[in-house]
Amino acid sequence: MTIDWAAFSPWMALTGGLLLGLASAVFILVNGRILGISGILGGLLRPKTGDTGWRISFLLGLVAAPTVYGVFTSLPEARVDAGWSAVILAGLLVGFGTRYGSGCTSGHGVCGLSRLSPRSLVATLTFMGAGFLVVYLMKHLIGFA
Amino acid sequence: MQRLIEFVVGLMFGLGLLISGMTDPGKVIGFLDLAGAWDPSLAFVMGGAIVVGIFAFGMAKKRTVDFFGGAIRWPSSSTIDRRLIGGALVFGVGWGIAGFCPGPALVSLAAGVPKAFGFVVAMVVGMAIFEWLEIRRTGDN
């Protein structure tokens, strides 16, 4: 294994991570809910009365982030190497998989691990393992992307 | 008041994703690419989030209501089943293909990244397929 020292950004990663943890902390203590993006978004598809306002407020805050960030400094780049058809396929898989498995990187990865949930630990190890494997196959076996 | 806090929490979360580098699929793939030049940054993102989270969730577990007196809603399921593992596998494959997970994809969409738009539309379709299958499975809508 070789480390990509040029790309490695531990302080920004740690600062951003602390902010993600803080947001999850405020959410459970103030709002009584797990901060999981796939669940918050997916719950809008079959809306229940009285259960949509908080979802919409949260998501509006989330999508306001680039505008607020842009006031202080230029936005970080978003390098999408995957082609359009791969992006669409990936979106379908992520949408279905996160709902079928009851969570994504935020709900299982951050909140679930923080509350020491065995279910979330299994989910996190599984999606990370799948991610490692797919990138290995695409980059080093098939040489695609 | 609640709505305002939810908005601010969403904003904090989005800023956290931008600062940490999670909104750049190239950086996410750099983390997932163990066999290439590996960028361990995202392990620090998770680590930072969990350090704060452990304290907060430890506090929350001792309470029955949140600061506003509403019930704390813990996930009801505790079984490790085929749905959990199958769903996580499918999610992980999609994550590895494009480098987007749901939060960063929404933030990148708002930042005007064209492929993030395509990803989010497909993601919502994927979520809708799940809901449709659930309605068929449970016979409830």
List the helices and strands and how they pair.
The complex is a heterodimer of chains A (145) and B (141).
Chain A: E1 2-3, H1 10-31, H2 37-42, H3 53-72, H4 84-100, H5 105-114, H6 118-141
Chain B: H1 2-20, H2 25-32, E1 37-38, H3 41-61, H4 82-98, H5 102-110, H6 114-138
Helix pairs in contact in B: 5-6
Counted beta strands of chain B:
1
Low-confidence stretches of chain B: none
Taking the sheet with the most strands of chain A, its summary is:
none
Structural class of chain B: mainly alpha
- Approximately what portion of the residues of chain A adopt beta-strand conformation? under 5%
Largest sheet of chain B: none
In short:
With 145 residues, chain A is mostly helical. Chain A has 6 helices and 1 strand. Classes of the chains: A mainly alpha (145), B mainly alpha (141).
Q: In words, what does this structure look like?
A:
The complex is a heterodimer of chains A (about 140) and B (about 140). By secondary structure, chain A is mainly α. Chain A has one domain (about 10-140). Chain A is about 70% helix and about 0% strand. Chain A contains six helices and one strand, in the order βαααααα. In chain A, helix 5 (about 105-115) packs across helix 6. The model of chain A has no long low-confidence stretch (mean pLDDT about 95). Chain B is globular and about 45 Å long. Chain B is an all-alpha fold. Chain B has one domain. Chain B is built from six helices and one strand, in the order ααβαααα. Chains A and B meet through strand 1, helix 1, helix 2, helix 3 and helix 4 of A and helix 1, helix 2, strand 1, helix 3 and helix 4 of B.
